[in-house]
Amino acid sequence: MEIKKGIPIPPKSSGRKSKYPEHKCVLKVFKVGDSVEFVMDAKRNDCEGLYSNVAQNFIRTGTQKFGYKMVSRKISEDTMMVWRIE
To answer: What is the number of structural domains in the chain?
Structure first.
């Protein structure tokens, strides 16, 4: 074992890496009235229809990290839109 002097301590890790890093890039320029379309690709269970994990993550990031108010609507059988309303 060797003692070393003057080695800088690296910064702490910021935790888990984002699953969708592109969301933050879009949300930084997302203005009131803007919308984004998502494909509904996941099924919760047999009784409910399709939904989008990606859209839910986008909404969660927008509301929790950016403080935006957002609303989503089903546009077709397999598509939903998310709008920033405030």
So the answer is: 1
- pLDDT at position 22 is 92
pLDDT for residue 45: 62
Q: What is the mean pLDDT of residues 50-78?
A: 91
pLDDT digits (tens, 9 = 90+) for 10-30: 887 777 778 888 999 999 999
C-alpha distances in Å from residue 11, one per residue of 5, 6, 82, 83: 18, 15, 36, 36
Record the tokens describing residue 59, joined without a space: 């909404």
Concatenated DSSP letters of the chain: -----SPPPPPPP-SSPPS-HHHHHHHHT--TT-EEEEE--EE--SSS-EE-HHHHHHHHHHHHTS---EEEEEEETTEEEEEE--
The domain in which residue 40 lies consists of: 21-84
